[in-house]
Amino acid sequence: MKTIQFLTVALMTLGVSTQVSYAQKIEFKEFDLDNGLHVILHEDHSTPIVAVTVMYHVGSKNELPGRTGMAHFFEHLLFEGSANIGRGQYAKYVENAGGALNANTSQDRTFYYDLLPSNQLELGLWLESERMLHAKVEIAGIETQREVVKEEKRQRVDNQPYGNLFSETLDHAFDVHPYSWAPIGSMADLNAAQEQDFKDFYKTYYVPNNAVLSIAGDLDIAQAKQLVQKYFGGIPRGTMYLPAVKEVEPLNKGEVRDTIPGKDQLPMVVKAYHIPAQGTPDYYAVDLLNQVLSQGQSSRLNKSLVDQQELALFCGAFTYNTEHPGLTLAYGLANMGVDPKQVEDAMNAEIERLKNELITEQEFQKLRNQIENDFVSRNSNVAGIAESLANYHMYFGEANLINTEIERYMKVTREDIMNAAKKYYVAQNGVVLYFLNDPTLMKQ
Amino acid sequence: MKKFNICILTLIVALMAACTTPVPSVDRSKAPLPGPAPKLQIGQYQMFEMENGLKVVVVENHKLPRISYSINLDIDPIVEGPKAGYVSMAGDLLGAGTASKSKAQIDESVDFLGATLSTSAGGVFGSCLSKHRNEFLSIMSDVLLNPVFSAEELEKLRKKTISGMASDKTDPNTISSKITNLKKYGEQHPYGENMTEETVKAITRDDVVGYYSKYFRPNAAYLIIVGDITFEQAKSDASQFFAAWQKGNVPTHAYATPKEPAANKVVFVPLPGAVQSVIDITYPVDLKPGTQDAIVAGVLNNVLGGSGFQTRLMQNLREDKAYTYGAYSEISADEVIGQFSAGASVRNEVTDSAVVQFLYEMDRLVKEPIADSTLQLIKNIMTGSFARSLERPQTVANFALNIERYKLPKDYYETYLQKLNAVTAADVQAMAKRVIRPNNAYITVVGNREVLEKLKVFAADGKVEVLDAEGKPFVEMRPAPAGMTANDVMKKYIAAIGGEAVLKGVTSYDHEGVMEMMGMQATMIDQMETKGRRRTEISLPGMPLYKAIYNEGKSVMLEMGAPAREFDADEISNARKECDMLAELHLADYGIVAELRGIESVQGEDCYVVEMKKSNGELRTAFYSVASGLLLLEREVKDMKGEPVAEETTYENYQEVNGVKYPGVRTTNAGGQSFVVRINKARYNVAIPAEQFNVNQK
Prior knowledge:
The complex is a heterodimer of chains A (444) and B (698).
Chain A lengths: L1 H16 L11 E4 L5 E6 L5 E8 L13 H8 L12 H7 L3 E6 L4 E8 L3 H14 L4 H20 L6 H9 L13 H6 L2 H11 L5 E7 L3 H12 L23 E7 L5 E8 L5 H14 L5 H9 L3 E9 L5 E9 L5 H17 L4 H18 L3 H15 L4 H11 L2 H11 L5 E8 L7
Parallel strand pairs in A: 2-6, 7-11
Antiparallel strand pairs in A: 1-2, 3-5, 3-6, 4-5, 8-10, 8-11, 9-10
Helix pairs in contact in A: 2-5, 4-9, 10-16, 11-12, 12-16
Chain B lengths: L1 H19 L25 E4 L5 E6 L5 E8 L12 H8 L9 H10 L3 E5 L2 E7 L3 H13 L5 H18 L3 H14 L11 H6 L2 H11 L5 E7 L3 H12 L22 E6 L5 E10 L6 H13 L7 H9 L3 E9 L5 E10 L3 H17 L4 H18 L3 H13 L10 H6 L3 H11 L6 E6 L16 E3 L19 H11 L3 H5 L3 E10 L2 E10 L3 E8 L2 E9 L2 E6 L9 H10 L13 E11 L2 E10 L4 E7 L5 E10 L2 E15 L2 E11 L2 E12 L14
Parallel strand pairs in B: 2-6, 7-11, 7-12
Antiparallel strand pairs in B: 1-2, 3-5, 3-6, 4-5, 8-10, 8-11, 9-10, 13-14, 13-24, 14-15, 15-16, 16-17, 18-19, 19-20, 20-21, 21-22, 22-23, 23-24
Helix pairs in contact in B: 2-8, 10-16, 11-12, 12-16
């Protein structure tokens, strides 16, 4: 008993001395070109590299039913070439210059990046402007990438343990909003996509007024500005109507409960709840609530389900940050021989506790210390900085949140966390899925 | 005039173009040229050795207000044998309690700082904000110096480890890495042995404590400090927190050197329902870190499949043939033994074609020198990757550690790019001849059974070694003894559950039990009279869920939410059969054709596999223990509203009453649901009130 008291006192003292000293301030310049392209530049000479990135405001939520997976499929096709870049040469330019490149697609945006030696900045701008101005996609490229994307789906989803967790959860949670499918899409839709679909998609979404060019690293701002103007200034503004997703998924639709049979041996319990969009005050409260539940070994789910009751092999809770109202997820993988119902009951008990009691002052200070640490560690490389700046501009219209978003977290009170639990973590606002082993699927 | 008109038009077009694009002229047709190459600055490190032998490496980097600390053991890997798993468990348990703090207290204090701390068999790693340096180091040194390895935490970890292994059995990549390690290094080698449920169960607290006390010694360790700290501070911290760590004699080990196979061998692990094959072509390679050979092998590997999109494997298997999302190779240098590995996940139908392409690309490296342009491309890729790695302060610490561990020249990394640039195409081909062995490889595939047959051609002896997920020989169905029939199995079964004479004497039974489903407990009643009466009832308190009564030709079926009805022909036939204690001896009377298929292992127990086909086409497969004769498992595909639903029932815990044996626990899995029935009361040859079989019920 004495030891525990001593520890608590020591920690409380520490808490008092904990003055929040945020990470280094990220300086940046931003401006719009006449064609609507938003440009953000961050100068940092620590390492002679530069990250040239373009974020397009299009993701799987912009897809039409029957064409799911389109945004991601298209991302693959945009490595094929352009009017001036032969098929398959795009990546070669970057790698021959000692760079690396890739892209990824979420439900809300598509993000391309080239990490280059800093003397190759101009090459990066040429490549990305070619992609934006006149990308070229041949039938052979479509057919090849169609198969590659299908392999990606098999590798990441169909042939992975619990690989369907994400898509099943989305499918059960959303009825009207296009978040109901995962960016990888369905095999049938991947098979159905036609050349014309891509042409329309490109013309609509891959336009400067729907993109953010974010560059970070060993660059000179004035020179970079000039080069950006040179390569992107002449790209015409998009002329197509940019359709907005208007569907709103209502809260409290009634509990959705289902079992998903699979090959995996241990039962997995997933509980998802509908929450507001990222950036709203309640979103930050929910995010901290998840931190109480699952950040660190001492977090409530880990301590209770894994360490004390030994019900789960592992568990967690995280906020799925999306532009439109999305989901928060909690999951637990049952230990061998444990009934998934027990896992769910134990998760529920922790959630109920959050509704009935404020978290302790000490726990609250722990959250704030964790936030501070995470914030310091976030901006440790130029690629990450470029992406964060683009994100903050695209979703919040305020790139400077890279420096100040922490204040929004620090504003959340213990009462806010309790209220978030009461408001969103309720049965009629959620989905409960049991992923169960079906031994009959194990037969050859 | 005409000519003049055209000129005007051209002029207008040109003017318009000039007006609408007021930007510096861009020649888009060619890639812009690079500026002068920037100079790479490799960060500095400082080093000292403490009296207890702990070598401390410090990399100062004040960009962010944080510090990372890592204790790295520099020891020989260990053969764990029949207790495989104890080394990694010792590493995990290091953080699970000290003399003064429980695991919960350690977790709480680390999390409170917003810090991270993890432990493993190879050391301890943690990071914190620089202002929390002292608090953090006191926790870290406590974890390192005073662990208790409590029996309670060991049992918890054992349980988790066993659960984790169950979970791994459906992960093709985990299976692949276990199997390839086993094959290329052998089970007697530290890199080849794998833990199993059996070895994990054999681990004792002494094993764990023994590992810690022998190997966690400062004279066999490095402390790496990276971040927002000065060398002087780091020095005084080290002596404050790690000077009490006692040195000791750390055992060293030697092993037989694993060799590549004399000819290609094919190993296959069936993974039911797999939609891709995880292919790995692999073998051990003798290659030491920090040598010029390792740099040449690095170039060679990047030609084949190191990273990025330009490698031959990516260009061939992804960009040209679209067999895979990504194909990669690795040639790793290691002080004990290095390895070659090339692989990809590919859809089932192209598995053999993909293997052909892997072998083709390997062979090509041996036979043809690489073009100068390829060599330059690879050097550029490696130079760029080296430059990018310098962005992480951790990289400099890794460089320092390698220089110390492998006794490299101090300027090894300063001159790395010169050494890379000196590599010639001839060097690369010579290295290929030494380390690329398209005819001396283990070709391993984890995937669907359907791909197995096509892999035989790749084995020098035409045979595929089939293993289970743990690397043990996969037991296929074996033939039953010659002359044995299904009828013989049935006779053994009847004998096992009581014998013909006893069963003939049975007039009735009354079973009562509990059925668990979806977290609820229902009562189950199962009654029978051999003259042809049967009643099955499942109910929750005050809520009947299901009632089925058969009474000498008459019947009633009451299901929740459905109107009462009579049995259909199939149900009548089933009921008649269930009223017959000796039904298995004359199945044909119930329209069932039984055939003995062979012997297969069920949960480690050999079983006769008997297929029973009904006249309506329904097929049931039953597994009878070879040793006891008892029924252990049944599999069936049932028709549910036009959809085939697979069902599996296991029978366990056989009990005996009045000389008759019945399964005390019956578990049925169907459609992802599990139903467990436990019989807690069984009576035989008792009078059952006639009204129990009254079919005029609603």
